[in-house]
Amino acid sequence: MNCDSDDYIHFPVLHWEVVEYLTWRKGCVKIVDGTLGCGGHSSLILKENRQAELLGIDRDGDALRRATEVLRFAEERIHLFRGNFSDLKEYATELEWNSVDAVLLDLGVSSPQIDDAGRGFSLRFNGPLDMRMDQRNPVTAARILNLESEEELGQIFRDYGEVRQWRRLAREVVRRRQLKAFDTTSDFAEFCEKILGKARPGRLPTPTLVFQALRIAVNNELSELEDGLEAALEILAPGGRLAVISFHSLEDRIVKNFFRDLERDCICPPKCPVCICGGGRAKLKILTKKPVTASSDERAENSRSGCAKLRVAERI
Ligand SMILES: C[S@@+](CC[C@H](N)C(=O)[O-])C[C@H]1O[C@@H](n2cnc3c(N)ncnc32)[C@H](O)[C@@H]1O
Fold first, then answer.
1. pTM value > 0.85
2. Which atom of ligand 1 is found nearest the CA of 9?
């Protein structure tokens, strides 16, 4: 799950590691940041390589405005788009970039999004049940809670939050909304605690995983990630690098499996005595055999980095 932090703006997660992995090529390289956020990683990369060009994407209009300011020092080298990173190939085509040297995806929400009560991402503040990264999207968390079927809600709580009592929670949501629609984060958080019980001291608050599940559903996060990885693969030049930072196990599993499947030369079933697929299919070389995690210093400075995992692979 995502950790909250107030110092995130000053310390983009795993910043030294990202800069080291993604500025290994010098000169006029082309870099895609699919999750621009506050522009933290991008500004460090553009400062490290003064000739690099950047295609930056974010679906949040506020993030894009903030990043435009932060990256003003390199304005002649940046091209910013509001949209989904799953469309990164289309944006690159608009710039007539046939291939790129590096792609960065730093998943999840940013601190400015979490800390703005009006966006409805956080349990810590009362606000509308919104949770949209892209405010042009008509689907809010309230709309899902108040309109989706019991079955659909159950799947969301189970698949995106791994909530143990997903069936019961879905049933109770449907019962409660017949009396009063859900509209605020505090109301829904209290309801979750009433149904699922309070967490024991030292554990995450009970509604945390339910909020995570709703956020993933509102923003279609897992299929965005799957499509974004495919798009990155298609556009990376030979030797180009793909770096992904994930913040929970559902995301990390997708990245890990994607890298692992594309690292294999042969896709024959394990029981096949001889290779029948022809081999030579590997498309990626994994550079981080184990995910890179934050140092204890970084964890102390930025609590959000505690659950971050960076995986990097190189296009063959
Ligand atoms: C963790 S923050 C990125 C922070 C950034 N690396 C920095 O250094 O400031 C994630 C950002 O990605 C955006 N985002 C998440 N999923 C996205 C998607 N599928 N397409 C476009 N933007 C996305 C969010 O709106 C948010 O601004």
1. yes
2. 9
